[in-house]
Amino acid sequence: MKRRIAGLLAACLLIGGTVAWADNTFEGLPIVRVILNQQEVTNDVPAVLLGGRTMLPLRKIAELSGLTIDRWDGDTNTVYLGGGAAAPVATVNGEPITQSALYNRMMMEGGAHYVDIMISELLVDQAARQAGITIHAAEIDREIERVRVRIGGEAQLQEALRAANMTMEQLRSAQAHRLKVTKLLAPRIDISDSVLRAYFERNRTQFDNRRVHARHILVATEAEAKAVKAELDKGADFAAVAKAESTEPAAQYSGGDLGTFGPGQMVPEFEQVVFTLPVGAISDPFQTAFGWHVAQVLERTGSAPDFALIKDDVRAAYLEMAVQDQAPSLLAELRAKANITTTVKQK
Hints:
Radius of gyration: 34 Å
Largest sheet: 4 strands, antiparallel
Strand content: 15-25%
Strand order of the largest sheet: 1-2-5-6
Structural class: alpha+beta
Order of helices and strands: HEEEEEEHEEEEHHHHHEHHHEHEEH
CATH topology of the domain at 209-301: Chitinase A, domain 3
Distance between the termini: 24 Å
Helix content: 40-55%
Number of helices: 12
CATH architecture of the domain at 209-301: Roll
């Protein structure tokens, strides 16, 4: 690091008048093209050859190195530089932790992993540019809104970001990357009605927004269940009967109340009853693997999913699943075609 800074300070601070480069010279000195990471370095004052050495304006060198020119002292002809890898990210009792120290620590502990992620992201960016794919802010906004709705609202989204140690900008960047992958893969994915309907039928509960608040009394035999039903039909208090008769241990405290739940959370035989039973009605005895039940629905919201009405949601969910499945293959293809070099080695 000291050697690099010394090299920077050895560069000449060129202060010039008008640019006259027609003969490939600047103020009588040959102009030198400077290529950094396969990109030509451009500046209002060019690099020149002086005494067999290439001279580039210090301001440009500072810019390329992440340094700043803090001030120029004309009385002493001194340039004061700041920032860069030597700048502290923290101090402890006056002793600095520099950016270079932080970088070295991060490289040791996970550099190869993050370089691999950045390679994948750049490959996707390049493929998207080649395919003429552009991601607009409005598209990202829609994806963020989908995440917000799915997770339960703005408060839940912010809590999830905090838990993941992630900022909104990072989430937007991740969504932009996912959209590029989706658009690259979309031509390969069959989203015909037949495919979407089959996916809907296999994952019906995923699209079912019904919720039911129910309670039940569980006993061992059909005869006991019929006796419980008769007692309730005569006006007995449901919670009291549940505490006295139900074999479910929690009924002693809950009175048989199961709270609110959605499709797929209870055994099918139980759901078949409570998702069709009129609110307030008490069911006839019915059997599951746990025993015999008598149930009552206290509240029910939502409606059974209709493919025609939620086709757009089904398409989005199917496409997300298909992209997730096929993304590794796409990245493998892009890597196989790319010329990739890295100096960061896996442990």
